[in-house]
TrEMBL record:
Domain named ABC transporter: residues: 6-234
Family from the record: Belongs to the ABC transporter superfamily.
Domain of life of the source: Bacteria
Range of the intact protein held here: 605 to 839 of 912
Organism: Paractinoplanes tereljensis
Protein name: ABC transporter ATP-binding protein
Length: 235
C-alpha cells in the first residue's frame, strides 16, 4: 500500500459511551481521484476523517496513508493536508500572516509552502492582507482550505469544505478540487449533499448510520441506485 494515498480497512469506532459511530468502513483513495464521503448528518463522516488523520484512535481496523498510520510527529504528515477541525486563526494577524505562522510551526522550509498557489486556489484576493477578525465565515473557510493546501500535499482531506460558501464559491471549489487531483494528487472530501458529490467527485463512498451503503465511480452511484437516493435525501 506504500504508494496508495489512502487505504481504510475494516474501520470501527465505538465511543466511550458505547455508541458505535463507524462500523466496517473500507475504501481506498487512489492518485487522480476526488473521492466524496457522502452521508447525512451523524452518518460517521467526521469520525472516519478524524480516525484517518490520527486525531482519534479506531476501536479496530486501520487507515493507512501512503502505507503509514498517521500520528502526531509522523514523517508522512508532510504528504497530507487536512481541514477536519476548523482551525483557529489569530484575529489580529492578516490571513497571509496566519498562514505563515502556521507554516513556520511545521518547521518546513518557507519555499516549500507555495503560499501563492494556495492563496490563488482559495481565491481570497487582497483580503489576505486584512486581519482575520474582519473575515466573514466564508472567508475563514477559504483561508482554512488554503492552509490545508499549503505545501501542495499529495493527499488532501477536507471535511465539508463548502460549508459557509456561497454558490459561486462552491462552483469555484469544484474546479479547484478537480484541478488539484490532476497532477497525481488525491482528494477525500466529505459532504451531505448528493449534488455536490455528483459534480465534484470522481468516486463516492456513501455512508449511513456508520456503514457503507454504496461505493464506486460517481456515475455508477448517482441516479442508478434508488436506495442511495432515499438514504441521503433525508438530510
Ligand atoms: P456531521 O455532518 O453532523 O458531522 P457526521 O457524518 O460527520 O455528521 P459524526 O460526527 O462522525 O457524523 O458522528 C457520528 C455519530 O457519532 C453521531 O451520532 C454523533 O452523535 C456520535 N458521536 C460523535 N462524537 C461522539 C463522542 N465523542 N461520543 C459519543 N458519540 C459521538
Amino acid at each position: 500500500y506504500a504508494e496508495t494515498p489512502l487505504v481504510v480497512r475494516g474501520l470501527r469506532k465505538a465511543y466511550a459511551d458505547g455508541f458505535v459511530a463507524v462500523e466496517e468502513i473500507s475504501f481506498s483513495v487512489q492518485r487522480g481521484q476526488v473521492v466524496g464521503l457522502l452521508g447525512p448528518n451523524g452518518a460517521g463522516k467526521t469520525t472516519t476523517l478524524r480516525v484517518l488523520m490520527g486525531l482519534t484512535m479506531p476501536t479496530s481496523g486501520d487507515a493507512l496513508v501512503f502505507g503509514h498510520r498517521l500520528m502526531p510527529g509522523a514523517p508522512i504528515l508532510s504528504r497530507v493536508g487536512a481541514l477536519v477541525e476548523g482551525p483557529g486563526f489569530l484575529p489580529h494577524l492578516s490571513g497571509l500572516e496566519n498562514l505563515k505562522a502556521y507554516w513556520r510551526a511545521t518547521g518546513r522550509p518557507e519555499a516549500d509552502a507555495h503560499f501563492d498557489d494556495a492563496l490563488e486556489i482559495a481565491g481570497l484576493g487582497d483580503s489576505v492582507h486584512r486581519k482575520t477578525k474582519k473575515y466573514s465565515h466564508g472567508m475563514r473557510q477559504r483561508l482554512a482550505i488554503a492552509q490545508a493546501m499549503l505545501g501542495l500535499p499529495e493527499l488532501l482531506v477536507l471535511d465539508e469544505p463548502t460549508d459557509g460558501l456561497d454558490p459561486p464559491q462552491i462552483a469555484e471549489m469544484r474546479r479547484v478540487l478537480k484541478r488539484y487531483a490532476t497532477d497525481g494528487r488525491a482528494v477525500l472530501v466529505s459532504s451531505h449533499l448528493l449534488a455536490e458529490v455528483e459534480q465534484t467527485c470522481t468516486h463516492a463512498v456513501v455512508v449511513n448510520k456508520g456503514r457503507i451503503v454504496a461505493s464506486g465511480p460517481v456515475e455508477d452511484i448517482v441516479g442508478e441506485s434508488p436506495s442511495v437516493q432515499i438514504e441521503v435525501s433525508d438530510v
